[in-house]
Amino acid sequence: VQLQASGGGLVQAGGSLKLSCAASGSIFSINVMGWYRQAPGKQRELVASISRGGITDYADSAKGRFTISRDNAKNTVYLQMNSLKPEDTAVYYCKVHQLIDYWGEGTLVTVSS
Questions:
Q1: How far apart are CA 13 and CA 84, in angstroms?
Q2: Tens-digit pLDDT profile for residues 4-54
Q3: Most buried pick, 1, 10, 72, 90, via CB within 10 A?
Q4: Mean pLDDT of 59-72
Q5: What is the 3-state secondary structure (H, E, C) of the chain?
Q6: Under a CB-based contact definition with an 8 Å cutoff, are residues 75 and 23 in contact?
């Protein structure tokens, strides 16, 4: 399974970005899809996840600002990020679980103050 993430970039505080991550390859039933992030000098952390049935989970820092969604027909997961803050600056990684975990390469999100 290969993952291709896109949508990162530079945005001012208070702005919005939408990340996408498309899975391809030997796909038969992807279970959980999620977004993680890693800021400089910090550990990678969960931002949000979504089950195949649409059950979502968010980090406290993402609640009320970020929305995760998925299109099972396209094997794609999205992360709509609103009201971005400088502390959201990080490399964002998508992860999917199909028997094992697969990680994307990451996309950089930079929020300027």
A1: 5
A2: 999 999 999 999 999 999 999 999 889 999 999 999 999 999 999 999 999
A3: 90
A4: 98
A5: CEEEEECCEEEECCCCEEEEEEEECCCCCCCCEEEEEECCCCCCEEEEEECCCCCEEECCCCCCCEEEEEECCCCEEEEEECCCCHHHCEEEEEEEEECEEEECCCEEEEEEC
A6: yes
